[in-house]
Hints:
Radius of gyration: 15 Å
Largest sheet: 6 strands, mixed
CATH architecture: 3-Layer(aba) Sandwich
Helix content: 25-40%
Order of helices and strands: EHHEEHEHEHEH
CATH superfamily: P-loop containing nucleotide triphosphate hydrolases
Region (G2): 35-39
Bound molecules: guanosine-5'-diphosphate, magnesium ion
Number of helices: 6
Region (G3): 56-59
Structural class: alpha/beta
Region (G1): 9-16
Subcellular location: Cytoplasm; Cell membrane
CATH topology: Rossmann fold
Shape: globular
Family: Belongs to the TRAFAC class TrmE-Era-EngA-EngB-Septin-like GTPase superfamily. Era GTPase family.
Number of strands: 6
Low-confidence stretches: 25-32
Amino acid sequence: HSGFVAIIGRPNVGKSTFLNRIVGQKIAIMSDKAQTTRNKIQGIYTTPDSQVVFIDTPGIHKPQSRLGDYMVQSALSTLNEVDAVLFMVNATQKRGRGDDFIIERLKQVKKPIFLIVNKIDQVHPDDLLPFVADFQHTLDFQEVYPISALEGINCDELLSAVVKQL
Length: 166
Ligand code: GDP
Ligand code: MG
């Protein structure tokens, strides 16, 4: 199992924390996948039988700034080049405009999209279901994973599910 996975989410949801936890420092190989993805590689997760290249999607998660069409189109084309998308949200904050901005763009993406609900160490379990439901009626997610990137909760399970998808 190997492939390219984009990770997207508004600032401070925990994308870097997650990547730092799961990703090895060593960049093993470069695939001949589209050129445009190469300079956005953030890290590679490797096991004996799998390799997942994580791609950053800059531009699309900055709804505050006025984006040129180029940035948005570039981010969108990245989303269409990868094999799966991880959309990370923050369980401690209600769905907001930053999330909705991304969701609107994800509606054009014809790839499996995983909803990653991060920071579950900070919320009561009873609050999780309504939180997830609030996102699920906006988009058809392949799978939903509540995790804590900081504490490592459910991160291995998420990775296994992503690898299986590739
Ligand atoms: P990014 O902007 O999406 O890359 O977010 P960062 O990875 O930089 O994280 C933003 C802040 O959230 C940092 O202070 C992290 O320590 C914190 N954070 C990330 N993941 C978790 C988590 O699972 N639980 C808690 N409590 N804090 C987290
Ligand atoms: Mg970051």
